[in-house]
Structure formats: structure tokens, C-alpha cells
Amino acid sequence: MKAVLLSLALLAPVAQATTIQHLEPAFWWAGMKEPKLQLMVHAKDIQQAQVQLNYPGVKVTGLQKVENPNYLFVDLELSPDVKPGRFELVFTQDGEIIARHHYSLLARQPGSAQRQGFSQKDLIYLITPDRFVNGDSANDEVKGLSEGLNRASPGGRHGGDIAGMQQALPYLQQLGVTQIWPQPLTENNSPAYSYHGYAATDLYKIDPRFGSNSDYKNFVAEAKKLGIGVIQDIVVNHIGSNHWWLKDLPEKSWLNYDASFHPTNHARTTVQDPYAAKVDAKAFVDGWFVDTMPDLNQRHPLLATYLIQNSVWWVEYANLSGIREDTYSYADKNFLTAWSKRLMSEYPNFNIVGEEWSANPVVVSYWQRGKQNSDGYQSFTPSMMDFPLYYALLAALTEEEAWDKGWVKLYEALGNDVIYPDPTNLVLFEGNHDTARIFSLLNEDRDLYQMAMIYLLTAPRIPQLYYGTEILKQSPKQRDDGLVRSDFPGGWPGDTVNAFSGQGLSKAQLQAQHLVRTLANYRKTNTVLQQGKMKHFSPVHGVYSYARYQGSRQVWVFFNKSTEARTVDLNRYLELMPANARFKEVLTGQTISTKGTLELPARSSLLLELQ
């Protein structure tokens, strides 16, 4: 009887055609672990339609409606053995066909489910794509998009794109980079500041000023050929005010505060504070960043499913090795559990890093997978950005030594690893697109810069470098986004300085670039630094020291921040270091034979490999 009814439906008379404006996701894959798929259909008065299809292994299990009659949510179920192919969705109303839509199930890439996410083996390179390399000037101005090229403005679009990042791949490979994290590449059709990417206007489309979806997919494929993965920057907390939803919102409750602007209070501790007032907790999660970034209500089940499927879609489509989740704690925490659980269920070896901007390790650790939280909250996100250690590193390098200042801040911050379920899976960074440049924060002190780079690339973390740090990029110490995210020299025709070739770089910049390249490539092949254990020793007289070790292999780091040379008594280290140890200094290749002491020049760093 079902087959007869379906046949009758397919043979029904055709009424006036209804134009489907959006159907998302536009395609899916056969063989995903989760059998359910929900399609958002957006068309004039589509809500009253019935939906039929005829394809083995696919069935319609439900239709869901919202306040707006121009939306219909179609629930499908895919059998485990469904084959890749194409089928027709037939929309009928009052017995007449009003629309047809061809839908595809694609074949997955071999091994897709078991893809390896970024890990302690990697060095992540964060890029602001608009400010890196302009590889295709033809997409600088795109008809239909509000903001055009204005390289003279620090807050304008400068023209960097996916083609530029692809052209830079050999440079990044030689630098020792193994993962690229570009700021969001999805469409941001905002009248101003669209370059940064954090106010999406289409969650399934690459901004044409960066390139196309296929350009992005090809970029990831080319990067993988060079041993480089790509981490996508995803935002589930908010969208841009020019998102197409805002022109025809599914429901008022799609956005927090019924689509009206109420600013967040940024009180992130309210998520787990046992004394927090409900009004403060609501203001944090439901509040908007700015009036041009509407805050999404992830408690809405249809929106939650949409956002989860969107993240899975990008991983599968682009062949990603990771996700960086922006403004992590600002989204509904129960949604974040479902979101992270689904991703890690589909891709068990994948990795996700969340941004929780707090210097408090209690706040950050709350969100990491495996944390036994006092309120019972459970997360499936494996990694978080290590803001506490970042701030401790800055304090250690810039403060005068005292019993409670300087190196002891870093020493004690690392001791807080006891509260993390998986501290070595945290991402440590020297800066990002929201912070001042580290060379400027260190008062352009090259000795301190070297210490920062050595620590970044030898600490028991996943290191992340912001583009241009390797050439001593500078900025004001106070936040100034446009100047922090300045153009990478050599990325535009006519640049007199070219960091890719070295042309025009100062001696100091060339030395910094060489330092980062040496450290990164050393780490790239050194399992001690990737997977080894850590032992550190409390700071004494401006000297901080630690070892990474694995079996009989050891790598030692000594920092002397003092303006005076120090003689280090190595008897202190005999619980790990062999007596009269012999080392190779990694940066110079020099052999150092010790006889109970080690000489540290003033303001110096030593990176020693036990021989």
C-alpha cells in the first residue's frame, strides 16, 4: 500500500512551482555513524508541504514546523548499508507537486571516520587569511558583497585569500608547521570589519573574497600532500546580522532575547559558580557580543541539530584534522556536550580545541573531556586553549624576579596541571589575533623572545604560533586588532619586504625566523618533545630549568633571565641527569661536557640534548 501511495504522489499533478531558496545541508554522505539527518528547507509557504522520496535505505521519519511558514524541517533516516547515489525529494501540497529537489548521498573518503586529529606531534600556525597572502586579485571585489578592498584601512579588507595560503604552503612546511588554523573563511557579508570572519552570513559557504568551497577543499588536499593538516575555525555561539536567516527568521526564539540586542556580561565563571545569580548566568550565555552578532539559542532543538550537522559537514567535506571552537563557553553548555559528543563519535581520533579566555585553570579545565566536575557536567571536547599558561609565560618573562614574581609564575602555573584531565592536549600559544604581539609585549627584547619560542616549542603542550611571530611582528601593547593583524610582508605584489624569500628582512628578523625554523623542525622529529614526560625545578636566582624525557633520552632547557652569568650546580639534577653528562646544544650544534656545573651567560637560553 505504501508503494502505491508513493507512486500516486509521484504522479500527482504539478501545481505552480515553489522555488526552494535554501535546502541545507545541500548533500550528505552514505555510511556515517549517525543514521539521522535533518534537512532545513526554506521556501515560500513550504510548511504545509508533504515530502516523499523513493530510494533504498532512506526514509522520511518526520516533518517539523516552526512559527515561520517558510520553513520545513525534514527528518530522514539512513540505513547503515545505504549506497551513495542521487534521489529526488518531492514536495506536495493538496495532492499537487509544488517542488522537486535532487539530493545526493556521497561516498566517504577511505578512512574518513578514523582520521587523525591534531596532537602533541604538531605545530599549529594561526593565520588571519585576509592579511596573509593575496594569491588571487580577481576576487578582491565581489558583486553582491557589501565590503570591497581597502588595504589602506587597518580595519578594511586587504585581499588575502585561500589561493594565497596555498601558495605559502612550501614556506610553512620548511618553517616546520604541521597544522594550519585559518580564522573563519565562511561568508561574512557585513558592511565593515568583515575580514576577521567571526560574523558569518552563510554557514555553508566560503566567502567568495577568499575563494570557493572547492578552492578550500583543494587547499586542504594540497596541504596534506606536504604533511600539513587544516583546523577549521567554527562559531556556534553567534552569526552576523546580515545572515540570510535575519531576513526571514525561522522563529524569534532562534536567537537569544527574542532577536533583540542585550550585551553579554562576560561573566564566564557563572557557568559553574555555585553562588551565581541566575540573572548573571543568563546574561553571560544569552547575551550578545555586539549588536551586529546575533546570539544563537542552541537550546532550540532544530537549531542545535543544524549547527551540529554543519560542523560534521565541514569535517567530512573539507577533510579537516581539527576544529577550533570560538567563544566556547558562551554557547549553551548542554548543547556543547551534544555537539562535541557527536563529533567525537563520528571521528574518534579527531581533535577539537575550545577557546575559553580565562587565566583561571579551574574555568578552563571545566570544559575538557574527562574532567570530573562537581556539578556533574560532562564535555567531550579533547583540548582547550591554555590561556592560564600563556599569561604565566608573559609574567615570567617580563616581571622582575622575586619570591612571588617572574619564573615562579610559570613554574606554579604548570603545577596546576593536576586539575586538567589531559594537560598535554592543551594548546599553548604565544599570541593570537586578539592579543598584542609577543615581541612588543616583551619590549622587543630578543633574549626574552628566544626564551618564549624555546618554551613554546618544548613545553608539554600542543604549540601554536601566530603568523608573523617568526619575523618579530610588532603591535601596540594595548589591543589594536587592525595593527595586530597587519599584512604579512611579501604577500602582495610590490611589497619591498618579503618574508618568504628573506628579501628586505632585518638581521634580527632573519635570526628570529631561523630560530623558529630550527626549533620547529627539531621538535617535528623529536618524540621526546612530542610525547615525553616533564620534570621541572623551582627557579633559583633568575634561572629556570626543566627536562623532557622518554626512556633514556633527555632534552634539557635552562633559562637565565638574570643580567649576570650563573654557574649552575648540576648535583641538584642527579635524580634524572647522569653525572658528568655530555650534551649537544641544539641551536648551535656545540658539544657541552659537564663536570658537575653548567655555565649560563647572562640573559641566555640553552636547549640541550643528552648524548
Summarize this structure briefly.
With 611 residues, this protein is of the alpha/beta class.
Secondary structure topology:
Elements: H1 2-10, E1 20-24, E2 27-29, E3 36-43, E4 50-52, E5 58-64, E6 71-78, E7 85-93, E8 96-106, E9 124-127, H2 162-167, H3 169-175, E10 179-182, E11 186-187, E12 202-206, H4 213-225, E13 229-234, H5 278-286, H6 301-318, E14 322-325, H7 333-346, E15 352-354, H8 361-365, E16 383-384, H9 387-398, H10 407-415, E17 427-429, H11 438-441, H12 446-458, E18 462-466, H13 481-484, H14 507-524, H15 527-531, E19 533-540, E20 543-550, E21 553-560, E22 566-569, E23 582-585, E24 591-593, E25 597-600, E26 604-610
Helix pairs in contact: 6-7, 9-10, 12-14
Which key terms come to mind for this protein?
single chain, 611 residues, alpha/beta, Immunoglobulin-like, TIM Barrel, 3 domains, 8-stranded parallel β-sheet, 6-stranded antiparallel β-sheet, 15 helices, 26 strands, 24% helix, Glyco_hydro_b, lyase, glycosidase
